[in-house]
Amino acid sequence: MSSQVSPCQHCGARFPQGSACEEQFHISQIHEFEDPAYGAVHHLSVPSYMLQHNRYSRRGWLEVRALLHRFVFTGLTPQMARRELAISASSTNRDWSLTKGEKLAGVEQIDWSLTMANVRLDSAAHYCSDVTDWARAVLLDSERLVGTAT
């Protein structure tokens, strides 16, 4: 009898029996909301999970990935992003939905090198390091798709 469950149909993550990708993600979010040290990477964890699981609309996926790229590679902070996007990304000022509508084709074909299964929850230091690595991997793993999607 295997101690592993079937891999997540979206990202391929494998957890010990009794756990699932979405469940682990929700547990991580509880840590983030309860402890600011974990919450320091909220702007990386949510997009990483949502991008891998293709939870955004096609346009939303591309926009959020571009934002994640700025967080990881250009030093954009959540505070800077909030100021910058307060008007332009407001749901009242855009004519597209972040989550509703056509999904980006090809996301399901990506072989993700890191997933939620690679994120340790045992300490804030491990968690933040792992989430940062995960976000970087999501960007690198999806680079080819983005090049063909735009």
Q: What would you call the shape?
A: globular
Largest sheet: none
Q: Report the span from N to C terminus.
A: 45 Å
- Rg (CA only): 16 Å
Query: What structural category characterises the helix and strand content?
Result: mainly alpha
Provide the β-strand percentage band: under 5%
Low-confidence segments, ≥5 residues, pLDDT <50? none
Number of strands: 0
- Helix-strand pattern: HHHHHHH
Summarize the amount of helix as a percent range: 40-55%
Write down the overall mean pLDDT: 90
Helix tally equals 7
What is the strand and helix layout of this fold?
Blueprint: H1 21-34, H2 36-39, H3 42-52, H4 58-73, H5 78-88, H6 124-141, H7 143-149
Key structural traits:
150 residues; mainly alpha; globular
Give a structural overview.
With 150 residues, this protein is mostly helical. Helices cover 54% and strands 0% of the residues. It has 7 helices and no strands. It has helices at residues 21-34, 36-39, 42-52, 58-73, 78-88, 124-141, 143-149. It is globular and about 45 Å long. It starts with 20 loop residues before the first helix and ends with a helix. The model has no long low-confidence stretch (mean pLDDT 90).
Offer a quick outline of the entry:
With 150 residues, the protein is an all-alpha fold.
